[in-house]
């Protein structure tokens, strides 16, 4: 990972505040929070080569810190090892058991493979709410009730950065303003890179 200095952090804050990304991620995060009300009912799945570990950890933190049990995700993995702890042993069969009142959150920077699209379609048909954070996958976007697209050539926000913004927005109480999200993002960036020094 390339270290980020204080000047880059300051620029990122300024650039994002003028692009609409904070507002779009806030809206998507709000949808995630509103639909994820059942403890254990937020099913988080990625693509075969990319389990969304980082996002799972952030959502778990937001759930705990904000006392929002529904945001604690169930990480669904493509090939969970048999000797993994129970919470890391949840396989794709969990998607087949998705039902009304649960949320399936698909995180796919690259196109979702057909087996995942089929499971997403089945989960939607059984009443689960489908959200997608994707990099331009039209088929996945077409199956989702809500989606946020981060184009691969987006110069201002990386796919990983979007995950940070979405998890922070999901943890934000609905009555708070976009300025509250900006303050939380600033605290997160200060934690990662240290405070801005003039």
Automatic annotation (TrEMBL):
Query: What is the recorded name of this protein?
Result: Uncharacterized protein
């Amino acid at each position: 990972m390339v270290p980020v200095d204080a000047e880059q952090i300051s620029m990122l804050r300024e650039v994002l505040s003028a692009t609409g990304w904070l507002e779009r991620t806030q809206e998507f995060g709000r949808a995630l929070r509103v639909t994820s009300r059942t403890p254990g009912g937020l099913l988080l799945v990625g693509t075969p080569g990319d389990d969304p570990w980082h996002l799972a950890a952030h959502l778990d933190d937001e759930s705990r810190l904000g006392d929002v049990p529904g945001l604690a995700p169930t990480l669904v993995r493509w090939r969970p090892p048999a000797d993994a702890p129970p919470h890391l042993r949840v396989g794709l069969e969990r998607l087949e058991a998705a039902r009304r009142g649960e949320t399936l959150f698909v995180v796919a920077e690259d196109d979702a493979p057909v087996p995942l699209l089929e499971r997403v379609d089945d989960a939607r048909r059984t009443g689960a709410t489908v959200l997608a954070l994707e990099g331009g996958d039209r088929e996945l976007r077409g199956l989702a009730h809500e989606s946020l697209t981060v184009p691969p050539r987006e110069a201002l926000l990386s796919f990983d950065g979007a995950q940070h913004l979405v998890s922070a927005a999901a943890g934000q109480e609905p009555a708070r303003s976009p300025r509250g999200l900006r303050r939380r993002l600033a605290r997160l960036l200060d934690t990662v890179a240290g405070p801005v020094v003039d």
